[in-house]
Amino acid sequence: MVLNTCEINNNQLLINKYQTIAMKDNVIHKVMLTVNHKDYTLQILPWVSLLDALRDRLNLTGTKKGCDHGQCGACTVLCDGKRILSCLTLAVMKNGSQITTIEGVAGPLELHPLQKAFIDHDAFQCGYCTPGQICSAIGMLQENKAATREEVQELMSGNLCRCGANSGIIDAIMEVKEQQS
Ligand code: FES
Ligand code: FES
């Protein structure tokens, strides 16, 4: 999910363009989403971001709004198994998609291995970035592109931690990566 500055700017331009078109349109759209294995039908204005739909309409406030501009990764969720920035995604663009937020990653009786590893490695302080870090790490491990710690760091560099818990975050991810290999 690492986005370079050019890609972020392109995404922002795209969302601005859609929002401008949509605001002229000013029509409420029906959007069907499956979030954490539960089906929802929303009547939603076309310029509402997926992040705002999750937090304000579905009360799934685990996904955090940091910058709202694609810069921090706090809003990362999984869409059809791939990590995306929900602040740069219009909800209408994801009609019919399967979304997983931090509220949906644990099993019925136990935490997701990454949640457990984050606790074991003291990989958070304030916890604001943590839901995005964990969703991003799940997506990154599924991508299976990182072989080394340095590559994991690079592929997680779109998720910022202002508390400086980065070392513990990478330790936790590496532990789960090694368990999976
Ligand atoms: S809130 Fe989406 S990247 Fe910062
Ligand atoms: S734990 Fe505070 S921003 Fe990461």
Automatic annotation (TrEMBL):
Per its UniProt record, what Pfam families does this chain match?
A: Fer2, Fer2_2
Highest taxon, organism lineage: Bacteria
User: Does Transmembrane show up as a keyword for this record?
Assistant: no
**What UniProt keywords apply to this chain's record, in alphabetical order?**
Iron, Metal-binding, Oxidoreductase
2Fe-2S ferredoxin-type domain residues are 29-105
- SUPFAM superfamilies per record: 2Fe-2S ferredoxin-like (SSF54292), CO dehydrogenase ISP C-domain like (SSF47741)
Q: Which PANTHER family match?
A: OXIDOREDUCTASE WITH IRON-SULFUR SUBUNIT, OXIDOREDUCTASE, IRON-SULPHUR BINDING SUBUNIT-RELATED-RELATED
What's the protein name?
(2Fe-2S)-binding protein
